[in-house]
Amino acid sequence: MVNCKLDDFLQQANKDLDLALPFWPQGTMDVDETNLFITPLMVVQVITFECGGLALAISHAYPAMDGSTTFKIIYEWAKVCKFGTPSKDINFMNFNLGTFFPYKDLTTILEPPVDEGKRKNSKLIARKFVFEEDAISRLKEKFDSVGEGLGFKPSRVEMITTLLWRSLIRSTGSNSHLKRSIMSFPINLRGKVATFPEIANSFGNLIINKI
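^ Anthocyanin acyltransferase, sequence as received from the core. Prediction below:
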């Protein structure tokens, strides 16, 4: 129970994202992430406010579920709760990924769990960067001016990511010791594999990283 109204909290959290960190589901702190047989696929923490408002904090086992699956569950869950949609009418996901991608033992590729002592002593920091529309337009003009050299027209995500990455490289290289860096973009394969239209609404982890 949070002793303030949801609207007040959202206004405060908009200025200081660290206020939301205590809402992280604590149930995932005591499980072995390398053992999916004992690790919950999803942990949901319900936070109530004095005005009656609710907030959900969700953590999921990434080897079993990706962000698209989690968002779909929340969306359909909200439809049931808000609109009273019967569960039989929910357009839920298909459990057919195993047909196209047979089961494999993941224990050899899963990283060992972080030492609990180090995890508890670590400090989490939340940051938010806001780009106004006019700033994005100016950034787009700069990219367009060198568009022929790029050979393609970058999207908004690519432009902003490039700007943030360049800033990070410059800040870390300020001590004259520039470190190598690499960036990867997660790509949701649902709806992007023409030969497998059946996986467009599949439950599970169907994300690849593009470098």
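The mean pLDDT is 79.
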